[in-house]
Amino acid sequence: MSNVVASQIDLHSAYGGVVPEIASRAHVEQIIVVIRQALAEATVSLDDIDALAVTATPGLIGALLVGVETVKGIVIASGKPFVPVHHVRGHLYSPMLEWADGRTARVDLTDAADDWDFPYLGLAVSGGHTSLARVDSPSEMKQLGETRDDAAGEAYDKVAKLLGLGYPGGPIVDGLAGEGDVKRFELPRPMLSAANLDFSFSGLKTAVRQLVEREEPDNDAEREVFIRDLCAAFQQASIDVLLGKAARAAKSEGLSRLAIVGGVACNRGLRAATGRLASDGIVAVAPEPALCGDNAAMIAGLGYHQYAAGERGELDLNPRASKRI
Ligand code: KG4
Ligand code: ZN
C-alpha cells in the first residue's frame, strides 16, 4: 500500500561506502518519520494494522537494533504482535509482491514470465549479500551458494572507488560499462569453473586494481576511454560468474524460473544478460527497480506470510548480524 525509503546515500558518499555508526544514527533520526509517512501514504492508522514485521537479521548490527527496538516499543504500546524477518529472504520474496491496486511489482526479463510463481531460483545480489537460493514458498527457502568474500555490489562500489568514480559505484559503473569496449581487457572469472555454487569477488577487484596500477593513462582523454573499457570488462566478468552459476544451479535443481533480486539486480547489463537465458529455457524476472534495493515492502510482504502461518516474535528478541538463509 505504501513503500517509503529514507536514503542515506548522501551521508555515506563522502566516505565511499557505508559507515556503520553514521548509518545507525541516521536510522534513529528517520525511523519514526518513515513509519508515520508509510501509514499516511497508505491512508491507514496504526489501529488498522494487524501486525508488524521487522528485519532482524542479517546486517549491520547497529542498524538492525534500531529497527528491532523501535518495533518492540510499538508492540509494547499497542499490544500488537510482530514477526522477525530475514533480510535476504525478504529480497528473495520480492518478485512475488503486488501493489495494492493489483499491479505486479516485477519486470519480465524473458517472454512468458506472466505465469510467474513458486518454485524459482533466486540470485540475491546486493551491497551486503551474494547468494543463490531455491525458493519453494514464502517459508521454504534453501541456500545453494554464497560469496566467500566480497558481495557483488561491494565489488562494484570498491571498483568505482579505486577509479575515483563516486558512491554508490554500481549505477555509475553500469552506465560507463554500457559505453565501453568489453573486449579490450581480459579479467578473471573467479570460481566459475569450481564445482560448487559459491562466488568470490575480491580477486576480480584486485585484478582491476592491478590493471589500473599498470596501465592507467595520464592523458585525460585516454583515461576516460580506459575507465569505460575497464568498467565494461569488470561488469562482463561479474555477470559471467553470476549467471554462469545461476544457470548451473537452475539445471541441478530442475528449476526453469530465475529471479534476480537485490540492489545489483538494477544493473542494466545483468538484466539484459539474464533475459538472454531464455535461449536455455529459463523464464526470468526482476523486481521493478524501486524494489530491487533495500525496502520495507519486501519485509512486510514476507512478514505477512510468517504472521499468517502463526509465527510471532518475542520481546527478548536480539537481532543478529549474520544468519544463513
Ligand atoms: O540491496 P541494496 O540496496 O542494499 C544492500 O542490501 O546492500 O544494494 C545496494 C548495492 C550497492 O552496492 C550498489 O552499488 C548496488 O547495489 N547497485 C548496483 C546498481 N544499482 C545499485 N550495482 C550494479 N549496477 C547497478 N545499476
Ligand atoms: Zn538488501
Map the helices and strands.
Layout: H1 9-13, H2 20-41, E1 52-57, H3 61-78, E2 82-86, H4 87-93, E3 106-108, E4 120-125, E5 130-135, E6 141-146, H5 152-162, H6 169-177, H7 202-215, H8 220-253, E7 257-261, H9 268-275, E8 283-287, H10 297-308
Parallel strand pairs: 1-2, 4-7, 7-8
Antiparallel strand pairs: 3-8, 4-5, 5-6
Helix pairs in contact: 2-3, 4-10, 5-6, 5-7, 6-8, 8-9
Bound molecules: 5'-O-[(R)-(carboxyoxy)(hydroxy)phosphoryl]adenosine and zinc ion (ZN).
- Which band does the percent of strand residues land in? 5-15%
Which spans have pLDDT < 50 for at least 5 consecutive residues?
none
Quaternary state, please? Answer: single chain
From the spread of the alpha carbons, the general shape counts as globular
Find the count of extended strands (DSSP E, 2+ residues). 8
N-to-C SSE string, H for helix and E for strand: HHEHEHEEEEHHHHEHEH
Would you tell me the overall average pLDDT?
96
Major β-sheet profile: 6 strands, mixed
Helix count, DSSP H or I runs of 4 or more residues = 10
Amount of helix: 40-55%
**For the CA atoms, what is the radius of gyration?**
20 Å
The class by helix and strand makeup works out as alpha/beta
Question: N-to-C terminal Cα separation, in Å?
Answer: 27 Å
Bound compounds: 5'-O-[(R)-(carboxyoxy)(hydroxy)phosphoryl]adenosine, zinc ion
The strands making up the biggest β-sheet line up spatially as: 3-8-7-4-5-6
Summary tags:
alpha/beta, single chain, about 15% strand, binds zinc ion, about 325 residues
Could you give a short description of this structure?
With 325 residues, the chain is of the alpha/beta class. The protein contains 10 helices and 8 strands. The protein has helices at 9-13, 20-41, 61-78, 87-93, 152-162, 169-177, 202-215, 220-253, 268-275, 297-308; strands at 52-57, 82-86, 106-108, 120-125, 130-135, 141-146, 257-261, 283-287.
